[in-house]
Sequence to fold (882 residues):
Amino acid sequence: METSGEARAILTMTGIGKRFPGVRALDEVDFRLFPGEVHALMGENGAGKSTLIKVLTGVYDVDEGDIVLDGAPVRFTGPLQAQQAGVSTVYQEVNLCANLSVAENIHIGREPRRFGAIQWGELRRRSRHLLDGLGLDVDVSAPLGSLSLAVQQMVAIARAIDISAKVLILDEPTSSLDAGEVGQLFRVMRQLKGEGMAILFVSHFLDQVYEISDRMTVLRNGRRVGEYATRELSQLDLVSAMIGKELAALEELEEQPRRSLAALERDRPVVEAAGLGRNGAVAPFSLTIHRGEVVGLAGLLGSGRTEVARLLFGADRADAGALKVDGEPVNMRGPRTAMARDIAFCSENRRTEGLVAELTVRENIILALQAARGWSRPLPRRRQDELVDRYVKALRIVPANPEALVGQLSGGNQQKVLLARWLITEPRLLILDEPTRGIDVGAKAEIQRLVVTLSDGGMAVLFISAELEEVLRLSHKIAVLRDRRMVDELANDDEVTAERIMAIIASGNGTAPPEAPPGPHGPDVVVLGEEA
Amino acid sequence: MANVVRHRFFWPLLMLVVLLASNLIFTPDFFAVDVRQGHLYGSLVDIVRFGAPLILVSLGMTLVIATGGIDLSVGSVVAICGALACLRISELGDQNSVVGVLMAVGLALGLALLLGAWNGLLVAQVGIQPIIATLILMVAGRGLAQLITDGQIITVNSSPYKLIGGGYWLTVPFSILVALLVFGLALLLTRRTALGLLIESVGGNAEASRLAGIHARRIIFTGYVFAAFCAGVAGLMISSNVSSADGNNAGLWIELDAILAVVIGGTSLAGGRFSLGGTVLGALIIQTLTTTIYTIGIPPETTLLFKALVVTVVCLLQSPAFRAKVFGRRRKPPLPQPDREQPTKVEVPA
Fold:
């Protein structure tokens, strides 16, 4: 399917800029979409993919730049207008009505009527015709909710293309589908592509992107890194284009006199997971964390990093494998089992899984310790104040008022409160899931320093971060995840570089491909540097 | 002064005082309290005495609401417990036997605990929405109460049983003492132990609480058991006061008054922070309103409308957003400086 060159782009976006208070979400982004192609929009979390889609479909206003659809400049004021002009979007979460029938969902708001009354027979006939065209054999009278997610998604697509779409945007359509369902979706996508539809595809799954897309545009920090033909861009190049930045700067990381992994491994293991896994969350993995050791988890968003942490803490129950703490087999039945064995877990979702916004800083900090003591043995107020005071000072929580409501603190300070909650329980294994996400540079550095201090003091730390440099800087050992599978584990010595980890993330192959040189200035990477 | 206004009990207390004072216009000796035949007498005493069942039910409701739930079945539990206790006593050879009455009371309260456990099971373990889960017992419980009374009104003639709702002890109405005791115990249990904090945490964010190691389900379960227990005691009081059990009408709509009392007391229906003291104030406001309606002689056909109007005014005055809108502008010009701080601080729920 050759598309570029002779064909005329159906959609051209040039110099798109979008600002939010304090953030430049999109900066001079160009984007082209041709009829009859599947174009993948790639980038890490927060790179600007969603913003670009929302600007295109009129959810957000455009600050700068032009959008040309089918030769005519357009500026949509809302998704409905975009849809009428031929740009339809199907989101990750199917936003149709599960309780209505398939036929009703396809035609909702546009039912065929005679004298104001809906013609139900005609409605079903049209729906059946439409779905037949997509090669789907579905009972159009069945409630949408009774069908599999993949079929629901395709009903959403059917609805979208029925409203005369020229451009179809699929935002993370595969994230909740299994392999068979993905195949089904791809079959429909190929068919639509063959009919000349332009499809914009967003996915975090690299394999899927390589299977279905013809070209891709990579965004990073709100800027366009480049536009590539999928065949010509290796997975390694793609990952470095996505993560990018400071690749050369990584080399300048300060040398830390840290204990070697070999020395640490002579110490006793705190946690040993053997074949631990949970269906649909993460494939069975094995991981050993020693006393005083920082183990980093690297991988793209949705690669199963959080799932590993949740299994170790008992937030979710494993359905395979075994877990040992201090050499003793443990049946991890829930967070309390983990806490009884001195395991602590700071969730990446501070707001929904971490803090209780309407409680005070003090109450939030003592919560886990109090829960461990049980309701009948309240922590004496003097002791509370003492502990809270010490950690508010040590972690420099601002405002330094223990009676302030935690919901009113900034993100970085909330993170510190969450950290403090677990630190006062004196854990032996501290699991930190994205502890530095969304917080300012100063707080970030403080938390990184804290991790080093704690591990020097003998605490084992499982450190999860989307930022590779951070993982490299702090970890003694790095486990790499890809597509919900732990694909490699490597000691973080001088040999390990960001490129090597990217290569593993990209290829899913434990051994780094030969073309990736050990040094930081690998040719593949430099070629892909921002404006190179 | 500003501190007094900002105290969370300020508005409910003001409301209560205004309601009480308005009675003075119609009944000049409304505030008079005296001792007759060794018993405390007076309108104020009556308000607390007749308000005792509502106070009890509201206390239980407070904890359930604090966990983020609601219990609609308390009215039915009131009826069931009154019915069972009266049935057992009516079957006694000697209705004045203290042991027999105690056993009947114990049996009724035991059943209340069981009913609470049923609610708790449905909500915490099965995961049914609280409003639906307790609706089951709200409807079915009335039937259960009628089953116990066989559709009749059971009357008893037992002086030990009469004590609970209609008797006196040390010149004070016994029901007031019971309500005080339960209030004190609840306060002690929630504020002297960590239970209050854990309840507020679960109500504020159940998943975060679970991940912090709190037995969220167990806490929620306990809340429903406590609510049913309080309703059970209230049921004994109500049936004891009239020496009869009416499966149809005992505790009818008391759940709605209780929810109202909790809200007036400053506990959010969304769960989280709760105030038992506020709830008692709320229950007293509602009872005072009911009493006021009788004393000032509102025509019976308009009592519900009158009550609704007053409740609406009470709720509006409680709302910081409403107060800021109506009174905020008027207060600004004379005192610009202290007022500047107010908008940020008045946000604290009343």
Q: What stands out?
A: The longest helix of chain A spans residues 179-194. Chain A has three domains: 11-233, 252-342+427-527, 354-426. The CA atoms of residues 310 and 316 of chain A lie 6 Å apart. Chain A touches chain B through 30 residues (CB under 8 Å).
